[in-house]
Amino acid sequence: MAFSPSAPSPSTPPLQLPHKLDTIRSMDELKQIQAAILKTPSLQSPPVLAKILSFCALSSSPHIAHARSLLAHIDNPSLLMYNTVFHSLSRSNRSLVSISIMFYEDMLEKDLRPDSFTFPYLLKLFANSQALQAGEALHAHAIKMGLDANVFVRNNLMSLYAVCGEVRSIQKLFDGFPEKDLVSWTTLISGYTKAGLAKKAVKVFEEMMSENLRADGVTMVAVLSACAELGDLELGRNLHRYIGARKIDMDVFVGNALVDMYSKCGDVDSAYQLFNEMPVRNVVSWNSIISGLVNNKEFKQALELFRQMQRQGIEPDAFTLVGVLNSCASLGALELGQWVHAYINRNGIEADGITGNALVDMYSKCGRIDRAMEVFGGMAHKDVYTYTSMIVGLAMHGRGEEALELFAAMSSAGVKPNEVTFVGVLSACSHAGLVDVGLRHFESMSAVYGLVPQIEHYGCVVDMFGRAGRLDKAQDLISSMPMEPDAFVWGSLLGACRNHGDVALGETVAKQLLDVEPQEEGAYVLMSNLYTAGNRRSDGLRMRKAMRANKVRKTPGCSLIEIDGVIHEFRKGEELHPQAKEVYAMVDEFAHRLNIDSSQDEARHHSERLAMAFGLIGTRPDTPLRIVKNLRVCHDCHSVIKYVSRLYNREIVLRDRYRFHRFKNGWCSCNEFW
């Protein structure tokens, strides 16, 4: 038999063989040492055999079989050996429930009685796999053995029930404790938090405080998670002060929990400051702050942090990439989004689940609906969020019929739609002018799927009627709504009045809108435009003056364009950009070539025109321009962009507040229906 250099040679003294177990690197080495030990009965002590079993249990499945075979050939295996196996199995990141049960049954057959170590190891293993049925059976056996009252067994039982969402079982165990230690309280708090009962978790923490127990870092992580879910910033700050006053170790886990809490409570500045002050950070730290920035709409800062993370050599995980993709989607940062997609493919990360959904959403919102469809088609597992992202994306691109076909395929696949899915479906019908089809889908929400239409669904139908010019039907629907119409509903109808020139109805609707939302700028702007279009310029000016008198702040138009991976931002009348002079020169150039009278063109320096001008001077002649605007594109700019696309032979993709416009050769994909 050949020996590897590190394996025991024939001359290795027998007494040194057990020490070789600490340095083995492969199963072949282990088998050689094991064979030599089994030939020497004096070396077959429980600790030595336990080391062999531990190595096997932490290896792959065939080696687990080897461990079981070894136990079967030992005349009198001890409980220590079995506990060693259970301990090793519980440290594995694989699901080994059935294997552990086999070992447990083997142990019982050898008349070995489990102890207060056996049950915690097994319960931890079952908790890692969320194996509730196996855990309940073990619980019953612990009761039979009289070990259910042991504090370690009970705490691990609580942990098992916590990860499985069995809150009542956790509380019952907790209430049965004659003496409750910190682990028991912490497990109960964590259980309620994981079950989505954050208020109850905080209440348990307060009860714990009244018992004069001092929380540790693990407890604080649990209660901070509950606070984050509640969005209770005042409570979060009090918890932060408690950590400082009690001198609780601010390790990476507590730091991450604080960053997450501040982010979810809307105090992103405190979250960012804490993140920068953390002496040790892991990938979860980066994920927490990037996710927090994304949720607080600080997309540029989130991308900058991602670049900083890369410079520091921190490997992102799937959660990091989802946050980055969400930022790319919001900013229209296609180039970076494509880089992330390439990174996912290069590193063998599965583009399914939340990662795949984020890719679909990113490509859809960055104007590459074709790539979104490719990613969607390649996903092995499509859930309701996958279908919804794709349906909403198609709707935004004005591809209503394709969105409806996909909705039908979703139903055929047995995936039940949710409320957001129907927002996408109704939007698709609205943008495509499919009123009757949209009404059937609206009615099917409750009749077929048992979903109660919410105000956003009514708003979509009002918008659908309005776009089709059926303003009377829109009014009837608003009158019959089971809830009070909000600003979105009235705004949709007012927008329709503007598009169809109905001044009288517009005045009535504007009054209703301002009653609901006195600071709604859209009411003033739309009515001003409606009056002006109806040759009532004095009334239009009156609305503008009323807007100023009431101190209603108009949201400034803002457009983004990505060039060479850099996001450039333009606002109306922007003069701070380093190339502002060249940008305005280009605006003047295409205005001159299109014979636009600058003195009559109020939209001349709108943000989308500035972004388009920058794209024309900053890219090759054959490069498509992709622009994201925060407001609805106005009719004047829409017309100008159409002509510019033909004049400069450019494809220009504009995402405004409501949909995509793809301009090419003087034509727009919206067919003037937006």
Structure summary:
The protein is mainly alpha-helical. Helices cover 64% and strands 4% of the residues.
Any descriptors?
elongated; six-stranded mixed β-sheet; disordered N terminus; mainly alpha; 674 residues
Structural overview:
Helices cover 64% and strands 4% of the residues. It is built from 35 helices and six strands. By secondary structure, the chain is mainly α. Strand 4 and strand 5 (660-664) form a beta hairpin. The radius of gyration is 33 Å and the shape is elongated.
Helix content: 55-70%
Sequence stretches where pLDDT stays below 50 over 5 or more residues: 1-15
Oligomer: single chain
Fraction in beta strands:
under 5%
> How are the strands ordered across the major sheet?
2-1-3-4-5-6
Number of strands: 6
Structural class: mainly alpha
Arithmetic mean of pLDDT: 88
Taking all Cα atoms into account, the compactness measure Rg is: 33 Å
List the helices and strands and how they pair.
Blueprint: H1 17-20, H2 27-38, H3 46-57, H4 61-73, H5 79-90, H6 97-109, H7 118-128, H8 132-145, H9 151-163, H10 167-175, H11 182-194, H12 198-210, H13 217-230, H14 233-245, H15 252-264, H16 268-277, H17 283-295, H18 299-311, H19 318-331, H20 334-346, H21 353-365, H22 369-378, H23 384-396, H24 400-412, H25 419-432, H26 435-447, H27 455-467, H28 471-480, H29 487-500, H30 503-516, H31 521-533, H32 537-549, E1 558-563, E2 566-571, H33 580-593, H34 607-618, E3 625-629, H35 635-647, E4 652-655, E5 660-664, E6 667-668
Parallel strand pairs: 3-4
Antiparallel strand pairs: 1-2, 1-3, 4-5, 5-6
